[in-house]
Amino acid sequence: ALKTLPAALEEACQQDWSAAVEPLRTASQLMVIGRGPGLAIAQEAALKFKETCGIQAEAFSGAEVKHGPMALVNDNYPMLIFALRGPAQQSLIALAAEMRGRGARVLLAAPADVPERDLTLSTAPQEDLDPITAIQSFYLLVEAVARARGLDPDQPPHLSKVTSTR
């Protein structure tokens, strides 16, 4: 499956996530949700939103968000939910519906066979590799959001490519 990953990554680069740029352009806070292998993707995405866009983004598991963080959700509260293939997918789709019912501005990233999706996730030849294709599509989105906010994602403020420790 690793041998076919470059083609899957190329497909992930072709996904059109531009519909998410405008809702995130003016966001000051954001929840990024994943579960199982998708939680690591949510954590990486939240970090990149902070670093490149200046958005106070926090990552939560789909289960954890229902134990307190959802109290923050109000009208148009932005949420990016990664619903990768696998056992957690249906619970994340249900969470997206519930948060939409609370008035949140949900951006559901899911494979093409999920009709409720807002953003299409490419799938890898092997399900365990789906997080890699998901984050690839996300990286193009976060760059576009940073630029829409007037920021240079290649020069995040207060960050350096080198970390020195003493």
Description:
By secondary structure, the chain is α/β, with parallel strands linked by helices. It has a single domain, classed as Glucose-6-phosphate isomerase like protein, domain 1 (Rossmann fold, 3-Layer(aba) Sandwich), CATH 3.40.50.10490. 38% of the residues lie in helices and 16% in strands. It has 5 helices and 5 strands, in the order ααβαββαββα. A 5-stranded parallel β-sheet has the order 2-1-3-4-5, sandwiched between helices. Strand 1 (29-34), helix 3 and strand 2 form a beta-alpha-beta unit. The longest helix is centred in the last third of the chain and has 19 residues, at 130-148. The model has no long low-confidence stretch (mean pLDDT 93).
Quick recap:
The chain is α/β, with parallel strands linked by helices.
What is the spatial order of strands in the main beta sheet?
2-1-3-4-5
Nearest-integer average pLDDT: 93
pLDDT < 50 runs, ≥5 residues: none
The CATH architecture designation is 3-Layer(aba) Sandwich
Distance between the termini: 41 Å
Number of helices: 5
- Could you estimate the helical fraction of the residues in percent? 25-40%
Please tell me the total number of domains: 1
The largest sheet is: 5 strands, parallel
Which structural class should the secondary elements be placed in? alpha/beta
CATH class group: Alpha Beta
Which superfamily, in CATH terms, is the homologous superfamily? Glucose-6-phosphate isomerase like protein, domain 1
Overall 3D shape: globular
Query: How much strand content do the residues show?
Result: 15-25%
- In N-to-C order, the SSE pattern is HHEHEEHEEH
Task: Kindly provide the radius of gyration, computed on alpha-carbon positions and rounded to a whole number of angstroms.
Answer: 16 Å
Examine the coordinates and then state which fold CATH places here, giving the name of the CATH topology: Rossmann fold
Tally of DSSP β-strands: 5
